[in-house]
Amino acid sequence: MSSKSKDVRIEQRRMLEEKLDLRLQQLAQKGISKEKAQSNPLVKNLKAKIRETNTRIKAVEKIEKLNEDLAQAKILKLTAPAKKEGEEGKESKSKKKAAAAANEAKKKQAAGDAGKAGKKKQASAK
C-alpha cells in the first residue's frame, strides 16, 4: 500500500471491504456469532487496514484542497496586483521625476544662498 494516488487507495479500500465481508460470511457459516467474529484476528487486521486506508484518503483529499486553495490565491495575486502595479508604475515614475527636480532646485538654491552669504561676509570685512 505504498501508492499515493487517491483512486488507487479507494480501490484498495473496496477490495479490503470485500475481503472483510467474505470473512464475516465464512465465520457466520461456521456458526460463530457477530460479537465473536469481531474478535477474530483476520477481521481485526482487515478493519485496521481499512482504517489506515481511510486516513490516507483523507490526507490526499486535504492536500488536494490545499493545492486548490493555493492555486486560487495565486491566480488572485497575479490578477489583482497586475492592475495596481501598472497604475503605480506610472505614478512612481512621475513622483521620482518630481522629487529629483525638487532636489536639484534645493541644491541650486542652497548653492546660490551660500554664494550670496560669502559675498556679504567679504563686503562686511572690507
Question: What does it look like?
Answer:
- This protein has 126 residues and is an all-alpha fold.
- It has one domain.
- Helix content is 90%, strand content 0%.
- It contains three helices and no strands.
- It has helices spanning 6-29, 34-38, 41-125.
- Helix 1 packs antiparallel against helix 3.
- The chain is rod-shaped and about 110 Å long.
- The N and C termini lie far apart (102 Å).
- The mean pLDDT is 81.
Helix-strand layout with pairing:
Layout: H1 6-29, H2 34-38, H3 41-125
Helix pairs in contact: 1-3
Instruction: Give helix % range.
Output: over 70%
Supply the number of helical segments: 3
Gyration radius, rounded: 39 Å
The biggest beta sheet, please? none
How many strands? 0
Number of domains: 1
Note poorly predicted spans: none
Shape: rod-shaped
N-to-C SSE series? HHH
Mean pLDDT: 81
Q: Compute the separation of the termini in Å.
A: 102 Å
Tell me the strand percentage band: under 5%
Structural class: mainly alpha
Question: What are the key terms here?
Answer:
126 residues; mainly alpha; 3 helices; 0% strand
Describe the structure in brief:
By secondary structure, this protein is mostly helical.
